[in-house]
């Protein structure tokens, strides 16, 4: 298992297959990617994943923009499935999920995360810009029916907007057999005004959850995130902001839609462009660039941020 200079093993690849999206969430970090017209082909994604497997990277997450906007998304999942990853997952806004759930499962997708910040139509619309709440709910039901497991519901907490909906969303997840994932708003250059206005620390929410929990677990190789077990259901908490423990346990390498390795969500000064190497027949250069990108990783929050 390959490790970076800070002893962090590289266990998963997080691939943004597009930057395009059918929603317009006000807070969106677009996985930290920069605007581009280039979108990797299915073949390029496959080749990058094949090289990742050679480094013992056994988990892959497909994200966006919105991954279900790509016409060839089912073929992409099939191609990855042929590489025998232990875990293929996707994060989606769920708008197109109803039609895709069975096809994705059949192609080899193991599990799915669906973003849903509110169960109220007007709030959902004010966050995403679109009136698609019912479509997302239908998508979630189909994903569960199709056997994608687990289905996680991503709820990003915004002050004075949806902070009082945690327990409604928890009940919704319980009814559907899904896991609730509560997410802290992350600041990026593009959302700093929004951040000042709507950032909410998760301290009080986590404390409330902790008091109700029968059991707590830590995902050691996933940022040390905490999972709380309540009434036969689960809540996972994602708290990246100023969190050196989160970064110290970061085991992901990211791929941008324009075929660059992105060592950290919050940086764009250390990208490694794979496009020239993708033009070569052999994978030799690709492998060298993977090693270079792993070498460029450093925990963003904590004392090592500026180590080069
Ligand atoms: N700062 C930071 N945030 C991350 C990182 N990975 C995921 N996140 C955030 O975590 C939230 C949930 O991401 P998802 O795409 O649902 O996936 P995940 O929960 O990270 O991964 P799985 O548990 O494997 O499904 C999103 O807000 C992501 O931006 C990371 O490496 N750094
Ligand atoms: C960037 S989206 C891409 C996948 C898909 N379009 C979706 O919305 O699920 C992936 C996840 O990042 C989360 N996210 C977006 N902007 C964020 C921010 N500023 N802070 C924390 N999480 C964010 C979203 O809520 C979503 O769950
Ligand atoms: S659906 Fe996902 S990618 Fe699209 S704007 Fe919302 S968070 Fe961003
Ligand atoms: S180092 Fe920290 S901020 Fe950067 S990707 Fe990893 S967990 Fe996220």
Architecture of the domain at 12-153 and 242-296 in CATH?
Alpha-Beta Barrel
- Strand order within the widest beta sheet: 7-8-9-6-5-4-3-2-1-10-11-12
What is the CATH class of the domain at 12-153 and 242-296? Alpha Beta
For the sheet with most strands, the description reads: 12 strands, mixed
CATH-level-4 superfamily name of the domain at 12-153 and 242-296:
Aldolase class I
Q: How large is the share of residues in beta strands?
A: 15-25%
Question: Total number of β-strand segments?
Answer: 12
Oligomeric state of the chains present here: single chain
Q: What's the alpha carbon Rg, rounded to whole Å?
A: 19 Å
Assign the structural class, choosing from mainly alpha, mainly beta, alpha/beta, alpha+beta, or little secondary structure: alpha/beta
Give the topology string: H per helix, E per strand. EHEHEHEHHEHEHHEEEHEEEHH
pLDDT below 50 for ≥5 consecutive residues: which ranges?
none
Please characterize this protein's 3D structure.
- With 308 residues, the protein is α/β, with parallel strands linked by helices.
- The chain has a domain at 12-153 and 242-296: TIM Barrel (Alpha-Beta Barrel).
- 34% of the residues lie in helices and 19% in strands.
- Strand 1 (12-16), helix 1 and strand 2 form a beta-alpha-beta unit.
- It is globular.
- The mean pLDDT is 95.
- Bound molecules: guanosine-5'-triphosphate (GTP), S-adenosylmethionine (SAM) and iron/sulfur cluster (2 copies).
- Guanosine-5'-triphosphate binds next to strand 2, strand 3, strand 5 and strand 6.
- Residues 5-231 form the Radical SAM core domain.
- GTP binds at residues 14, 61, 91, 152, 252-254.
- Its EC number is 4.1.99.22.
């Amino acid at each position: 298992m390959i490790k970076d200079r800070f002893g962090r093993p590289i266990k998963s690849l997080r691939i943004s297959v597009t930057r395009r999206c059918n929603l317009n969430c006000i807070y969106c970090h677009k996985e930290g990617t920069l605007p581009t017209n280039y979108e990797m082909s299915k073949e390029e994604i496959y080749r990058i994943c094949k090289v990742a497997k050679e480094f013992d990277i056994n988990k892959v997450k497909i994200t966006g923009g919105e991954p279900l906007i790509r016409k060839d998304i089912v073929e992409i999942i099939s191609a990855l499935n042929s590489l025998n990853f232990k875990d293929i997952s996707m994060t989606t806004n769920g708008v197109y999920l109803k039609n895709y759930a069975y096809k994705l499962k059949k192609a080899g997708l193991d599990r799915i995360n669906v973003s849903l910040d509110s169960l109220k139509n007007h709030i959902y619309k004010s966050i995403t810009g679109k009136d698609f709440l019912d479509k997302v709910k239908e998508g979630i039901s189909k994903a569960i029916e199709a056997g994608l497991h687990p289905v996680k519901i991503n709820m990003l907490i915004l002050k004075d907007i949806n902070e009082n909906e945690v327990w409604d969303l928890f009940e919704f997840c319980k009814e559907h057999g899904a896991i609730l994932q509560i997410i802290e708003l992350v600041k990026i250059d593009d959302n700093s005004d929004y951040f000042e206005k709507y950032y909410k620390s998760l301290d009080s929410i986590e404390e409330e959850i902790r008091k109700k929990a029968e059991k707590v677990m830590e995902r050691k190789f996933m940022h040390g995130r905490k999972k709380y077990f309540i009434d036969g259901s689960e809540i996972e908490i994602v708290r990246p902001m100023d969190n050196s423990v989160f970064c110290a346990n970061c085991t992901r390498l990211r791929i941008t839609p324009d075929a660059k390795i992105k060592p950290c969500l919050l940086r764009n000064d250390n990208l490694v462009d794979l496009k020239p190497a993708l033009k070569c027949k052999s994978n030799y250069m690709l492998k060298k660039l993977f090693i270079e990108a792993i070498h460029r990783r450093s925990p963003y929050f904590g004392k090592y941020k500026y180590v080069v």
